[in-house]
Write a structure and sequence with these properties.
Helix content: 40-55%
Strand content: 5-15%
CATH architecture: Alpha-Beta Barrel
Largest sheet: 7 strands, parallel
Structural class: alpha/beta
CATH topology: TIM Barrel
Number of domains: 1
Order of helices and strands: HHHHHEHEEHEHHHEHEHEHEHHEH
Number of helices: 16
Bound molecules: coproporphyrinogen I
Strand order of the largest sheet: 1-4-5-6-7-8-9
Radius of gyration: 19 Å
Number of strands: 9
Length: about 350
């Protein structure tokens, strides 16, 4: 059991807000945190990043990764801190070459077809990810009592897409062509990722992560049958494996772009919450999803850049429509570097000053 949940059990203090919402409780003021809340929109992050000597170095130096995780907590007092790392540390730990080009995003030595799978090996997984577990451990003692610690990983499809495309992609042509043309070979890669990701997340819980989120940022590019096979089934299997070791750890899934298939994710994946992307209609989500899972989301990150009246009324409308059931305020995707930090402060003001 993590140190912070022990504190909860031993004292009569109310449990942390995020844990209450994820347990299905409707709260007058919802907990709030933001995807990618540590990052380039914060001057203090840019300062730490400058001295870290490369992005992966920042992820793998526990002292620095702990510092950047805490920066948005100190500045804004979010209800949760998300471990500072990246979804691509898993391919790195499997032996694939991964690097981050300043201003260009992630780059990987691409896998061309299933023969390249021999380049991957899970044997050094935990050794290579040890600094991440140490960061989780440090964070679980460093965080304020009321702040929940979230661990995370990428979903197998999203991670596989970077491994095959060699970086970001517009149309996922290489990864999709592989999956359509050689489903058995592609399944081998997905299975390898299900296994590594489950082991990685279980270790994060053992190190002190109290909640897990799985990011399937590119799940919206598939027709329904492939969404079920390459996105829903692997995420459900990871949830099953994590919960068989740690039945009580809440899991949030983010199947971005899933559309109507959010209903199947909510009903079938065994998760405690789903994180809604910006396009999901709120009345539909409240009617079809919220009786089964806690909802998280879904402010457009660009509204947080724009600020002003539309931003404020959109925040109010999300609160109006989703506060009738268990709910966690968040964005519909990660915060962008152009976001003025004052707008984030304003967002917290609105959410917290308006009990519903
Ligand atoms: O230049 C820099 O400083 C690097 C920018 C950066 C940051 C701050 C990258 C490179 N990753 C991160 C941290 C990160 N990535 C976190 C940290 C914790 C927090 O939320 O504060 C998390 C949760 C991620 C997850 C992540 N990485 C996702 C899933 C979430 C999402 O936004 O969809 C994805 C797709 C990635 C890949 C990645 N790593 C970095 C970038 C710029 C990207 C996206 C590239 C793309 O759009 O294809």
């Amino acid at each position: 059991m993590s140190q912070s949940s022990r504190t909860d059990a031993e004292s009569a203090k109310p449990r942390k807000l995020l844990l209450r919402a994820l347990a299905g409780e409707r709260l007058p003021v919802p907990p709030i945190w933001l995807m990618r809340q540590a990052g380039r929109y914060l001057p203090e992050y840019r300062e730490t990043r400058k001295d870290a000597g490369g992005f992966l170095n920042l992820c793998f130096t526990p002292e620095l990764a702990t510092e950047v995780t805490l920066q948005p907590i100190r500045r804004f007092g979010f209800d949760a801190a998300i471990l500072f790392s990246d979804i691509l540390v898993v391919p790195h730990a499997l032996g694939q070459k991964v690097w981050f080009q300043e201003g260009e995003g992630p780059k990987l030595e691409a896998l061309a077809d299933s023969r390249d799978l021999t380049r991957l090996s899970p044997t050094a997984l935990h050794d290579k990810l040890e600094p991440v577990y140490e960061t989780v451990d440090r964070l679980s003692s460093a965080l304020p009592d009321e702040t929940t610690l979230i661990g995370f990983a990428g979903a197998p499809w999203t991670v596989a897409s970077y491994m095959i495309e060699g970086g970001s992609s517009k149309d996922f042509q290489k990864a999709k062509t592989w999956a359509y043309g050689d489903p058995e070979g592609f399944q081998t890669l997905i299975d390898l990722l299900v296994d590594a990701t489950s082991r990685y997340l279980i270790r994060q819980v053992q190190a002190g992560a109290e909640v897990l989120q799985i990011f399937d940022s590119w799940s919206g590019v598939w027709p329904e049958p492939q969404f079920r096979r390459w996105c829903l089934a692997p995420m459900a299997e990871i949830v099953r494996r994590v919960k068989s070791e740690h039945p009580k750890v809440p899991v949030i899934l983010f199947p971005r772009g899933a559309g109507l298939l959010y209903a199947d994710v909510a009903a079938e994946a065994g998760a405690d919450a789903v994180s809604l992307d910006t396009t999901v209609p709120l009345a539909w989500a409240a009617d079809h999803l919220q009786s089964q899972v806690t909802l998280q989301g879904n402010l457009d990150p660009i509204l947080l850049v724009a600020g002003g009246e539309t931003f404020e009324s959109s925040v109010e409308s999300i609160l109006d429509r989703l506060s009738g059931g268990p709910f966690v305020f968040n964005l519909g995707h990660g915060i962008v570097p152009q976001t003025p930090p004052e707008h984030v402060a304003k967002l917290l003001d609105i959410v917290r000053s308006r009990p519903s």
